[in-house]
Amino acid sequence: MLRTELCDLVGIEYPIFQGGMARISDGILAAAVSEAGGLGIVSAASGDVDQIAAELDAAKQRTSKPIGVNVMLRGDNLDAIAQLIADKKPAVVTTGAGNPEKYMEMWKNAGIKVIPVVASTTYAKLFERAGADAVIAEGGESGGHIGELNTMALVPQVCDAVSIPVIAAGGIADGRGAAAALMLGACGIQIGTRFLLAEECSIARAYKDKVLKANDASTIVTGRRLGHPVRSIKSKFSREYARIEYTSIGDDELEQFAVGSLPAAVSGDEGHGCFLAGQISGLCKKEQPSAEIVREICEEAEALLLGGKKWVK
């Protein structure tokens, strides 16, 4: 069985995290992944404390196994969300878009493992000094907000820079990616895009179809001008954003243009939706239960790492 130190750290069977995809990773999906032996993660990106609490409760009602929560460290009610997390005591909190140091002591005192997402060695070392239990090194191949370094370059450098466990993310969707991540020094992987096609994922049919039809050239990065680059599947919205991004349009107007684009995608609005997905979308070709996704990835990786087998389609 594929097992690493991450499994012991978090209390899971397989070293796989399901990414905390904004407005997508709900309690049903998270519970399904955790039941499968990975770590399901509820997204707190809605910013609505009551809704976040409801999704965490929904997950815990469906599984007794560890559950995580992902919080983006921006917004007006971060203190309330942080306190909710401390009160609900998920096994893990993953963080992005900021420094979790302000809340680190409170979360750790509640028995929660704190695992920030990083896009550079600088932040990995910073968060290690602050007391992080591990870090997720996420390359620019991922969907959603991205950094500049790609996974193949980022992961080994982060592994060399810190002594805490490193989880690899970005461009990983099968056993080959998992095996490669472990060979680079990571002790586990975080996957988002492939779980868009989990049967338990509640996104609209149009969103899933875009992932199913994608190939290696199907994504686009927008938002660099405002300092928050985002990778998504090419769509009417993303192409129009790319067209106007470097025109004379003002920053406020450009930012306003994107308001509501993620909820629109989740509901299947092809005209206004920003369909977040990674470059690995071209390998995600079937819908299946979360349990099958977790099992297939682990079996493939184990065959490659332990059995010395070459990849066979």
Brief account:
With 313 residues, this protein is of the alpha/beta class. It is built from 13 helices and 11 strands. Strand 4, helix 5 and strand 5 form a beta-alpha-beta unit.
Main beta-sheet annotation: 8 strands, parallel
Amount of beta strand = 5-15%
Mean pLDDT: 93
The number of strands is: 11
- Number of distinct helices: 13
Q: Could you say which structural class the secondary elements and strand pairing correspond to?
A: alpha/beta
Termini separation comes to: 21 Å
Principal-axis shape equals globular
Portion in helices = 40-55%
| Poorly predicted segments | none
Spell the H/E element sequence: HEHEHEHEHEHEEHEHEHEEHHHH
**Order of strands side by side in the largest beta sheet?**
1-9-8-6-5-4-3-2
Alpha-carbon Rg, integer? 18 Å
Folded structure, characterized:
The protein is an alpha/beta fold. The protein contains 13 helices and 11 strands. Helix 5 (101-109) links the parallel strand 4 and strand 5. Helix 2 packs parallel to helix 3 and helix 3 (49-62) runs parallel beside helix 4. The longest helix has 17 residues, at 290-306. The radius of gyration is 18 Å and the shape is globular.
